[in-house]
Design a protein that fits this description.
24 helices; mainly alpha; 482 residues
């Protein structure tokens, strides 16, 4: 007799969550084993639960493969960015950006400048990965030259990079969230501005104050001079090294596809290395795959520049594939449905609904390991609750990005967390306290939810709506709806 198929209970879901956290913590902290093995072990834990609930292995395998398939674009971008970093370091492009940054940048305003530069780059390109892989590693080099703690620099760079990842109409997560919630993309972006603008201003002020009162006293300009001299000795530094970044940012701003554009950027790096750095052509090509290697005699220069290449991303890609598979398994055995149904019973007003949406999106990052998973879980698990409470979908789309896109680099095994740590050379938990823009987006979103500020209703007179305040029924124009 065939076993009855059922979804997991709330107790079973909680048990899975506790076991997952225990597995991750024990593998990384007690046993010193790779996080990839922890994720693989978690696969079998979920499969055991799925078999207990009546799912067949073939059904779960299909869900696992679908989870991986849904996130393959992130994997291809990782390959492309790895190739770009390798060739842009070898060709002198990244060293030139670092050199000019050190020569014109004031240490006291550097953190604010790093955030703004990365924000402008990500708004123009729509990709946080591409921003960190280019402007981000340059900011790390400049910050290291000023002897500023790298977790602080990484926090400023990542904060800026996610401004564009969240707001740019070129961003894949922005487009995907608007599509999933059936909201016009411009309407979606305008809704997010109510949260993102104050978060950007406040976090910018925090980075500025940190620079004025902390960095000025600790900055070592001797190291900056030493860095510039080492770069000048090793590379040909010139203004025309900045041409490839201008070309690539312009192409992305013109809505050209990200993956072929980034690969084209790595080709420009190969040509620049051959033409201007006196590299053998085959050696220049090889930096796309193996990255750049040098022994300058200056340790921090070597640590910064000995990176890049497709090979450098292989461990990251494996981790992301395992995390995506985990998310697919959770979807196939009904864990996400159970979470959604539980949250639906609890979310009775705009504040609780905001919280539930953001938690649902965060679960997508925590268990699914990717921003793509998070925007799906955030938008779909709580979608019907917005209809029930008569709240417009642009609030749903905004909350999905706040809980999903924004929290991606906060999870050490998510695609964003892994990429940021691997590319910048700063562990996720080290830069996490300095993601001030991210924390502010979360806090402001929750404040709006519980105060009813900037919560728009489709039918303010619906008896089903439990309104937290009179302001909840105010439309975008500031007028109460009849």
């Amino acid at each position: 007799m065939r076993k009855e198929i059922k979804d997991p209970s709330v107790k079973q879901v909680l048990l899975v969550m506790v076991l997952f956290i225990l597995i991750m913590f024990s593998f990384m902290n007690w046993f010193g084993l790779p996080i990839q093995l922890a994720l693989l072990t978690s696969w079998f834990m979920l499969m055991a639960l799925g078999l207990w609930l009546g799912r067949s292995y073939s059904f779960m395998q299909s869900g696992l493969l679908k989870g991986i398939s849904d996130g393959m674009e992130a994997v291809l971008i990782l390959i492309s960015v790895g190739a770009l970093i390798g060739s842009w370091i070898a060709s002198g492009i990244v060293p030139s950006i670092i050199y000019y940054g050190l020569s014109v940048m004031n240490p006291s305003i550097f953190l604010l400048a790093a955030m703004i530069i990365c924000a402008v780059t990500s708004l123009a390109t729509g990709t946080s990965f591409g921003t960190i892989g280019t402007a981000g590693i340059a900011m790390i080099g400049i910050g290291q030259g000023f002897d500023i703690p790298l977790p602080l620099v990484a926090g400023a760079a990542i904060s800026g990079a996610y401004v564009g990842d969240k707001l740019s109409p070129l961003s894949d997560t922005t487009v995907m969230t608007a599509s999933l919630t059936k909201v016009n993309i411009i309407t979606h972006i305008k809704s997010m501005l109510y949260v993102s603008v104050p978060a950007f201003i406040i976090s910018g002020l925090l980075f500025l104050l940190t620079g004025l009162f902390y960095v000025t006293n600790s900055a070592d300009l001797t190291q900056a001079t030493q860095t510039m001299n080492a770069l000048n000795d090793q590379f040909q530094i010139s203004w025309y090294m900045l041409i490839p970044p201008v070309i690539i940012i312009s192409l992305l701003a013109l809505k050209q596809p990200a993956i072929p554009t980034i690969i084209f950027g790595s080709l420009l790096g190969v040509l620049w290395g051959y033409w201007f750095q006196n590299m053998a052509f085959l050696d220049s090509i090889n930096t796309v795959y193996e990255g750049y290697s040098t022994n300058s005699g200056v340790p921090f220069i070597d640590n910064l520049l000995n990176s890049g290449g497709i090979v450098s991303m292989l461990e990251v890609i494996l981790l992301i594939l395992l995390a995506l598979g985990l998310g697919g398994l959770m979807e196939s055995i009904g864990v996400l449905r159970t979470i959604g149904n539980t949250l639906a019973k609890w979310a009775t007003n705009s504040g609780k609904l905001t919280t539930s949406t953001m938690l649902s999106a965060f679960f997508g990052n925590f268990f699914g390991g990717a921003a793509y998973v998070s925007v799906i879980t955030g938008s779909k698990i709580t979608e019907k609750n917005y209809e029930k409470l008569g709240i417009e979908k642009r609030v749903l789309s905004r909350n999905t990005e706040a809980g999903g896109t924004i929290t991606t680099p906060m999870v050490p095994w998510s695609d964003g967390g892994v990429f940021m740590a691997a590319t910048l050379g700063v562990a996720t938990l080290a830069y996490l306290p300095f993601l001030w823009y991210h924390f502010l987006v979360i806090i402001i979103s929750l404040v709006y939810g519980f105060t009813g500020k900037f919560i728009w209703y489709t039918d303010a007179t619906s008896p089903e709506i439990e309104q937290p305040s009179e302001k909840s029924s105010i439309s975008a124009s500031g007028k109460k709806k009849a």
